[in-house]
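Ligand: flavin-adenine dinucleotide. Inputs:
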Amino acid sequence: MDFAFTEDQLAIRKAILDLCSQFSEDYWLQKDRDASFPDEFYRTLADAGWLGIATPEEFGGSGLGITEAAIMMQAIAESGAGMTGASSVHMQVFSLQPVNLFGTQEQKQAILPPVAEGKDRVCFAVTEPNTGLNTTELKTRAEKREGGYLVNGEKLWISTAQVANKMLLLARTTPLADVKRKTDGLSLFYTDLDREKIEVRLIHKMGRHAVDSNMLFIEDLWIPDEHRIGEEGNGFKQILHGLNPERVLIAAEAIGIGRAALDRAAKYARERIVFNRPIGQNQGIQHPLAKC
Ligand SMILES: Cc1cc2nc3c(=O)[nH]c(=O)nc-3n(C[C@H](O)[C@H](O)[C@H](O)COP(=O)(O)OP(=O)(O)OC[C@H]3O[C@@H](n4cnc5c(N)ncnc54)[C@H](O)[C@@H]3O)c2cc1C
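Predicted complex:
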């Protein structure tokens, strides 16, 4: 199997690195210090069409796949933007695959182009305080009513909810006691992040301050039937089409950060003079760098 990049893939990498070179270390440091979302970076990627890299062409994207998206995300992280830059656009790039695969033509037409253009910002609301990775136990309920669902519950660690206007939400529509398999009875919705019905509370964390993480308290949120993606009760299987590629992107981003760190360490080893010579002349410095 040939793992080499194609010319087109190399061109993506170069284009992203060129674009990211506009955003200096000082830019990222300032964003982190101010805990403010990197709007300029986000806008630049959106205007150049990169947010839609994996969105089908008929919905305003480039129609490329997970490999190209991973190359792009790796280059963003490697440029020095790190996890801050990558996670500011991460959700837009692949989390809407369930909409792409299971949404109706009308839903796709309404949802995908504004996300690819950077007009709509999406957060992804799955994790809950008491369930963690055990997603099938999630407690947020979407109770069926005529014409829609009434939603109540809590979500935890929801990234970008301070700046998002849309939300991809996983909630239980059939109680766990009434389903055959634990994975049944969850449903997926793409809806407005209505701040009258959802309190978004910032979580103070130890890093990545520019991209917010939040608790969501959802009280009597009304979601019309048209905002449900795919069949009722099938949400768990659908969401895996977003979560699985997301894991690939995160791995690629982590390698990008590793490359940025190695580059900095090698540069420092060349510049730092101790005992009248660069520290990089010592094997104790050279060997671990070479290993990395
Ligand atoms: C900065 C940040 C941003 C996030 N953004 C989002 C977001 O936007 N949207 C969203 O929905 N979620 C988000 N998350 C949540 C993230 O996806 C969860 O943290 C993750 O799903 C794990 O849940 P947990 O932290 O409760 O871990 P837990 O479920 O408590 O697990 C803790 C550890 O135990 C391990 N473990 C658990 N059960 C088992 C088992 N049976 N066997 C072996 N090991 C096990 C896990 O692998 C993990 O290492 C974010 C989290 C962070 C920290």
